[in-house]
Inverse folding.
């Protein structure tokens, strides 16, 4: 067994160095950061545009005193639904020709007036493009009613006692955490699957596979390659998670502390993210390595990528159905099916506090990793090296 | 009957090896016995089954039937740290530096990386490639890369070296160097098995050979034994064109450029000489030549196999 592990280490060390020390690895690290950065930039621009487009400016033609009452009512509304959600009001003194003034204001670009409110609080009327925005009309009615009654000037005393969470918010938050966790695992594995498919192309194309196969067991080569890629991807994950946390810290008020708390707590959850990522990666990786080992050219690998990606999407879809139902039969099935097990169990970690199921799941997944690797190595020997197995399949170490 | 390798007499033994790829039988009942410390040549034309036999012996593939015993083990990979292997299709990682490539091959055979690098530096310097130690393999010429791989084959000081067509792709100087390296390893007690389709290399280097044709062993034994299967050849030129001496010439003799060429009769050279002198042949030249390995190969494997062997073409 020691020789097996040492052989796997030799392959892993070579592959890890060749991957991490290559120029391409920089692009691999930067790759996922670009969409994140672009998403942030365009999201910000889009939000600003949307804020201008969706919250119309209403020009109020009337005396200052009435406008002040409307403005106080508007502040109260903004307190309730947020400033972005409330319509904006701008006051204009009445001109000699109301119709002309209304026309002029509706044509104004600065500010971009959507409607004009005139007639005072007693006989208000609105002219503008509000047909597609019944919410804005509703807000105006509310503001006028509030301004008329004068209630906007009085803020009733309302003592509030805060609790950290309620059952309603907890379930929703944890489901969100489960969703984010699964999506993270899925995308990371998706990113790496292409690399795994092409892992043996180099050895096969430069013929060094003969020397390796004559020196160490094929199983050791598979294990070495898989763990080398796992180590390289962990380097990537550390970089990406750090970048993601930094981005959240910068753009989200309160930073990462405001993210929904998983059921097992953040430290355990993060540890499980790493463990389940490793298992998800090893399970799918062992399968992909086996499939990819059959390919002899990059073109063949590219052809294989499509069905492999579809298979991943289906597995992800299956695992995501268990979110919100961690104790359902479906959740149990997803946890038992080896390829969806890590995703399903990570969702469980977000929603259920018990830890023992994770221990069982990790052992179960590790068993399947060993089985797939063993079968993969045998398939490789049979189809690529053109050799049949002579030893029983359950004997892992072939020295 | 399986001879016991544990006695120390045999480094490799194969008994009735068969390998089938679908309908094709690439190796058909091959049995070999390679004495420890010998230089053993596997001769045969391309496609004869030499490489498949070597791959079976090394444990890269398993036989469909038959047994193999390598350095006393029936699972060759167990003996891998004591075996060096240079495959027919050479290959190294193009981005690796020469010393790292050699150290990597050593690491596969159990040598720690640091020790492997130290040995690689020494070997590269010894073979005049010291300046290339820290250059990527992709910048080396094909011949240099081949030498690097060869050094990687011996870096762990193996007891058994298996070389598949080792001379292919080497220029005349490097072929001579390789021959010397093989002899040196054999002098140190290492068993060397190499396959070749160039008879001259086998003739110069090997003590024992196996001739493989169409997946079967046509001959297995000492080179002398193979050559002694044929009778020596007599080349005779006489001043007299006819006379009683003609009765001493065997009926199957042929004429080549004014010479009689025939196999030495069973009685040996003395009765022949006596008959020629007494019969007034007037011997101008007389040569008795021992047959070469090529002639033995033709006799054993047939003309077709011999023509497929090709000539040595140094690059």
């Amino acid at each position: 067994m020691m020789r097996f592990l040492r052989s796997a280490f030799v392959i892993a060390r070579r592959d890890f160095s060749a991957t991490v020390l290559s120029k391409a690895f920089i692009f691999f690290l930067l790759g996922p950061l670009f969409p994140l950065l672009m998403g942030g930039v365009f999201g910000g621009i889009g939000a600003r545009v949307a804020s201008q487009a969706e919250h119309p400016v209403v020009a109020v033609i009337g005396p200052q005193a009435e406008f002040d009452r409307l403005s106080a009512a508007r502040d109260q509304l903004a307190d309730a639904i947020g400033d972005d959600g409330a319509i904006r009001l701008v006051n204009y003194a009445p001109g000699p020709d109301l119709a002309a003034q209304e026309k002029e204001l509706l044509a104004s670009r600065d500010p971009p007036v959507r409607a004009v409110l005139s007639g005072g609080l007693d006989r208000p009327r609105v002219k503008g493009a509000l047909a597609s925005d019944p919410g804005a009309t509703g807000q105006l009615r509310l503001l006028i009613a509030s301004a008329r009654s004068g209630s906007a000037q009085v803020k009733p005393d309302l003592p509030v006692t805060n609790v950290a969470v309620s059952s309603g918010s907890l379930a929703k938050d944890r489901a969100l955490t489960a969703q984010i966790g699964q999506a993270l695992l899925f995308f990371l594995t998706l990113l790496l699957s292409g690399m795994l498919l092409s892992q043996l192309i180099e050895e096969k194309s430069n013929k060094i596979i003969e020397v390796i196969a004559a020196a160490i067991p094929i199983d050791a080569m598979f294990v070495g390659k898989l763990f080398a890629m796992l180590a390289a991807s962990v380097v990537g994950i550390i970089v990406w998670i750090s970048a993601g946390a930094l981005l959240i810290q910068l753009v989200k008020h309160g930073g990462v502390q405001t993210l929904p708390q998983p059921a097992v707590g953040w430290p355990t959850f993060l540890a499980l993210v790493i463990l389940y990522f490793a298992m998800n990666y090893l399970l799918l990786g062992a399968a992909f390595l086996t499939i990819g080992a059959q390919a002899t050219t990059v073109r063949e690998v590219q052809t294989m990528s499509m069905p492999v990606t579809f298979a991943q999407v289906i597995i992800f879809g299956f695992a995501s159905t268990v979110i919100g139902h961690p104790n359902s039969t479906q959740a149990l099935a997803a946890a038992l099916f080896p390829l969806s097990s890590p995703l399903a169990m990570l969702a469980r970690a977000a929603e259920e506090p018990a830890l023992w199921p994770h221990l069982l799941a990790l052992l179960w997944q590790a068993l399947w990793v060993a089985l797939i690797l063993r079968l993969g190595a045998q398939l490789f020997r049979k189809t690529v090296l053109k050799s049949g197995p002579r030893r029983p399949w359950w004997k892992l170490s072939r020295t | 009957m399986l001879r016991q390798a544990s006695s120390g007499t045999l480094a490799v033994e194969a008994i009735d090896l068969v390998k089938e790829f679908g309908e094709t039988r690439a190796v058909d009942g091959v049995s070999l016995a390679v004495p420890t410390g010998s230089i053993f040549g596997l001769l045969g034309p391309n496609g004869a089954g030499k490489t498949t036999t070597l791959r079976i012996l090394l444990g890269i593939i398993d036989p469909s039937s038959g047994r193999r015993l390598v350095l006393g083990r029936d699972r060759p990979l167990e003996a891998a740290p004591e075996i060096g292997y240079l495959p027919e299709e050479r290959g190294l990682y193009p981005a690796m530096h020469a010393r790292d490539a050699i150290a990597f091959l050593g690491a596969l055979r159990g040598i720690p990386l640091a020790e492997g690098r130290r040995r690689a530096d020494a070997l590269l310097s010894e073979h005049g490639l010291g300046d290339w130690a820290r250059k990527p393999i992709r910048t080396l010429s094909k011949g240099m890369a081949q030498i690097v791989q060869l050094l990687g084959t011996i870096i762990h000081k193996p007891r058994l070296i298996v070389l598949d067509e080792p001379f292919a792709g080497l220029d005349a100087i490097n072929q001579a160097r390789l021959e010397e390296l093989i002899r040196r390893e054999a002098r140190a007690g290492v068993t060397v098995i190499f396959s070749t389709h160039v008879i001259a290399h086998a003739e110069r280097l090997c003590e024992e050979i196996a001739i493989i044709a169409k997946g079967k062993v046509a001959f297995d034994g000492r080179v002398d034994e193979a050559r002694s299967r044929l009778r020596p050849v007599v080349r005779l030129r006489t001043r007299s064109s006819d006379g009683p001496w003609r009765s001493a010439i065997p009926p199957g003799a042929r004429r080549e450029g004014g010479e009689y060429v025939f196999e030495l009769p069973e009685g040996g050279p003395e009765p022949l000489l006596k008959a020629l002198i007494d019969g007034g042949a007037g011997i101008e030249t007389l040569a008795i030549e021992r047959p070469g390995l090529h002639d033995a190969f033709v006799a054993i494997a047939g003309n077709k196999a011999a023509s497929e062997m090709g000539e040595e073409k140094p690059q």
User: Anything to note?
Assistant: The first helix of chain B runs from residue 50 to 58. The two ends of chain B are 43 Å apart (CA to CA). The mean pLDDT of chain B is 85. Chain B touches chain A at residues 21, 55, 58-62, 64, 75, 77-78, 80, 83, 85, 87, 89-96, 104-105, 107-110, 113, 149, 152 (CB under 8 Å).
